[in-house]
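TA notes, week 10

Several of you asked for a full example with nothing omitted. So below is the full record: structure tokens for the whole chain, then the designed sequence directly under it. When grading your own attempts, check the secondary structure regions first.
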């Protein structure tokens, strides 16, 4: 049975730089023999977390919307690549909605696993792909912290990232062949390391 890879396209801009990088990453995963699914967050209708506490008791979100289609994809993935441009030192609002609603999966993990079991990740591996227009040593700090705890909620280890700064114009990443090559290599190596 092949590994299942999920690519989460987090940009509101179709065909932008993170889309192109994630396309290339998933090509690498596919070439390494993985079964690949794609999720375009900009196409989803997701409301914010209501903090109603329902998932604390059930491990399931009480809100009915397009997240109903997302949870099964998150659960069956062995590897997730989350791609988002850097908006104000974090993921896009669209991605943040998805992350906040993943509280239900954290609650499910708390209900189903002992504290000892929660010290180990059993849900797979997660990676971040992020592009920022500016530079600076703290450019990706907020994004990485948010994404790390997103993967933690999914019972996945955070395995690393492809972070590209000083790229803004739509499609500008295509001028950076090294970045596109690194994206392909990331997709391939992530799958190969799990087959390992």
């Amino acid at each position: 049975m092949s590994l299942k890879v999920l690519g989460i396209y987090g940009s509101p801009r179709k065909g932008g730089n993170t889309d192109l990088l994630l396309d290339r990453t998933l090509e690498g995963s596919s070439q390494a023999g993985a079964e690949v699914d794609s999720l375009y967050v900009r196409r989803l209708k997701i409301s914010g977390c209501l903090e109603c506490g329902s998932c604390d008791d059930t491990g399931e979100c009480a809100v009915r919307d397009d997240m109903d289609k997302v949870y099964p994809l998150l659960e069956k993935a062995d590897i997730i690549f989350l791609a988002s441009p850097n908006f104000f030192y974090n993921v896009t609002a669209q991605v943040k909605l998805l992350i906040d609603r993943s509280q239900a999966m954290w609650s499910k993990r708390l209900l189903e696993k002992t504290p000892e079991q929660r010290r180990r990740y059993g849900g797979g591996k997660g990676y971040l792909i992020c592009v920022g227009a500016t530079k600076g040593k703290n450019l990706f700090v907020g994004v990485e912290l948010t994404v790390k705890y997103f993967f933690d909620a999914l019972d996945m280890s955070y395995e690393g990232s492809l972070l590209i700064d000083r790229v803004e114009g739509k499609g500008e990443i295509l001028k950076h062949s090294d970045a596109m090559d690194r994206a392909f290599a990331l997709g391939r190596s992530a799958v190969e390391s799990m087959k390992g």
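The chain has a mean pLDDT of 96. Use that as a sanity check on your answer.
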